[in-house]
Inverse folding.
């Protein structure tokens, strides 16, 4: 894993109405690093991921993804930057009636002509990449199977393959294993960690399970909930030194 800073978050602040969710939050994520976010519901984990991705605008602070100042971007410039960000969600966000292959190919939508998308005629190079991504996540035999007929763990693997063909530099995972059984959860997190290292992809992943975070993440960032800290400290990261020192 390189120590080059891929994502830099500086003094981030975000409120909803009168509720302060993030206050002075700062964090760096290196290229190839897997950072887990822990904290109770309402601590700001999802809000942080939405701000990083550009789906929500922070009230204060800076978010730098490589050369992109995400907190400043709007319109076409924001959409170009978002091409470098892959997403894995708790509810998979797949098109159930489409095949696993078709869902993986949606990772190439921003770079493919509209007529090809409408007709389903993706360039051959993109199709090769999609098959290779499915093979990488262990789902090549299921390439033509409908997404809604796959297990939960398999659906998350399709979402990871989609991020691979998108050529993401940053993967944002919001509770990716919350709906999975323990074995599937471990398999998905193990795969994310392997891909982060092999593809030099940065990962910022929110989790509810401290044991899984300690096992699979390179570092852990704990966000305090409203009942744990004064309002001025809410969202301040606490790095778990045992996880940081753990051999990787």
């Amino acid at each position: 894993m390189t120590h080059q800073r891929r994502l830099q978050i500086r003094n981030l602040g975000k409120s909803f109405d009168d509720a302060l969710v993030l206050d002075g939050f700062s964090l760096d994520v290196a290229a190839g690093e897997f950072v887990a976010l822990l904290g109770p519901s309402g601590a700001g984990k999802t809000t942080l991921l939405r701000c990083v991705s550009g789906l929500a605008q922070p009230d204060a602070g800076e978010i730098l993804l490589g050369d992109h100042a995400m907190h400043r971007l709007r319109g076409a410039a924001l959409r170009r930057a978002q091409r470098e960000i892959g997403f894995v969600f708790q509810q998979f966000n797949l098109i159930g009636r489409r095949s696993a292959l078709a869902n993986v190919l949606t990772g190439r939508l921003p770079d493919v002509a509209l007529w090809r998308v409408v007709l389903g005629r993706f360039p051959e190079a993109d199709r090769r990449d999609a098959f290779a991504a499915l093979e990488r996540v262990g789902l090549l035999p299921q390439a033509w199977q409908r997404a809604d007929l796959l297990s939960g763990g398999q659906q998350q693997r399709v979402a990871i393959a989609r991020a691979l063909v998108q050529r993401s530099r940053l993967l944002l995972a919001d509770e990716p294993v919350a709906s999975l059984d323990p074995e599937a959860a471990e398999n998905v997190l193990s795969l994310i960690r392997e891909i982060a290292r092999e593809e030099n992809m940065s990962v910022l992943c929110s989790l509810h399970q401290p044991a899984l975070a300690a096992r699979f993440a390179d570092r852990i960032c704990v966000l305090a909930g409203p009942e744990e800290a004064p309002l001025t400290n809410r969202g301040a990261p606490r790095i778990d030194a045992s996880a940081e020192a753990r051999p990787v």
Q: What stands out?
A: The beta strands are 5-16, 19-30, 34-38, 60-65, 68-69, 85-89, 170-174, 202-206, 219-222, 238-239.
